Amino acid sequence: MDLSYRIAVRYFFSKNKRSFISLIARIAMAGVAVGTMAMVVVLSVFNGMEDLNRKIFKTFEADIRVIPVEGKRFQVPRTLVSDVKSVEGVRGVTQVIEDNALARYGGQQMIIRLKGVDSTFERQSQLDTAMLGGSLKLYGPNGTPFAIISEGIRNALSISLEDILTPIEVLYPKISAKALNLTSPEAFNHLSLRPGGIFFIENRYDDYVIAPVALVDSLMQYKGERSALEVRVAAGYEEKKVSEAIGQKLGKQFAVKDRDSQNADLLRAIKMEKFFVAVTLSLIILVAAINIFFSLSMLAIEKKKDVAMLYALGANPSLIRKIFLAEGAIVAFSGAIVGLCGGIVLCWAQTRYGFVSMGMSTALVDAYPVKLIWGDILYTGVIVVIITMLVSYIPARRAADAGLILRV
């Protein structure tokens, strides 16, 4: 064992009852440990929230979405769908029409987000885990068109799946110069659908109604045009690489976005919040580490005679600095290890047992999600060590300088 480290260990575990410096060092170590543990837990919570949002997106949104660069709609010839399907990694393509509309049920009405999808949507079984009642079907056995309704709309309009006599009536303004008077019933196209299923994912999707694309096309007068193509990626393929390949295949008139690109603003906001929280917690660890500065400064004053004796025995200023830096390193590494282990255990316990609830309804999780990333743990450990070593340097240098003065 290095001499400087052996002396530092001796100082750290000093049993001198007249000195409270070792106690202050232990308090400093505890402060660093608590700050480290807090950083591990908070960063893991942000990772968990990011992961949860991706799971929510995956439950409702497509892996890749193809939309026109200009305008809201585009023609979908067979060659276009074939071109998309020919890209390696594409599992399926769904034609989509999506826009706002007015829904009526009984004597109530509300603005909804109407999404028309073709028959491939049923085969994807995308909403299976989010269904609260009914079935994920667009047509009944006798050809009756069904609507798959979000829980929010069901509650707002008091929709009952058992009531087979009352349909959902969807209205959309006619594209006609004579239909400018929106107070007239003649200004709207009408579509009647029978409630067939209820789903719930998260509040942001609580205004959606999913219906057959052919009927939505007739309602909105798209005349064969579509607002988007939703692409499913086969297992084992990366969404980003497949989206880039589709973009190269289709050219510049289409914007091709993977799921992260579709929700780039939200994911960017989470990352920015995580960054600023990490900076804030680093400053808190710095405040806790200041105790190390004071404990080492007091230790340097108390050990003046020891330092002078070491100089008399042939020690040089470098050895004295190493002793006090080693003392700071003991506090830093001890606090970092205890804090990292404590943070990992807390995250594991939350993942395993879900002690802390989110306090909100969601179809995916009940407890706060946490996700440990080893890069965050490494970052936390490095930050703690750097901060504590920096605050240890000044007392170590002063101790070496004071020893030289006494020697002279």
From TrEMBL:
Domain ABC3 transporter permease C-terminal: 281-400
Gene Ontology CC entries for this record: plasma membrane protein complex
Highest taxon listed in the record's lineage: Bacteria
Keywords carried by this UniProt record: Cell membrane, Membrane, Transmembrane, Transmembrane helix
PANTHER family associated with the record: LIPOPROTEIN-RELEASING SYSTEM TRANSMEMBRANE PROTEIN LOLE (PTHR30489:SF0)
The protein's name in its UniProt record: ABC transporter permease
Record-stated family: Belongs to the ABC-4 integral membrane protein family. LolC/E subfamily.
Spans through the membrane: 20-46, 275-301, 323-346, 377-396
Coiled-coil boundaries: none
Organism listed in the record: Dyadobacter luticola
Recorded topology in the membrane: Multi-pass membrane protein
Pfam families referenced in this protein's UniProt entry, alphabetically: FtsX, MacB_PCD
Localization per record: Cell membrane
Gene Ontology process terms (BP): lipoprotein localization to outer membrane
Domain MacB-like periplasmic core residue range list: 27-157
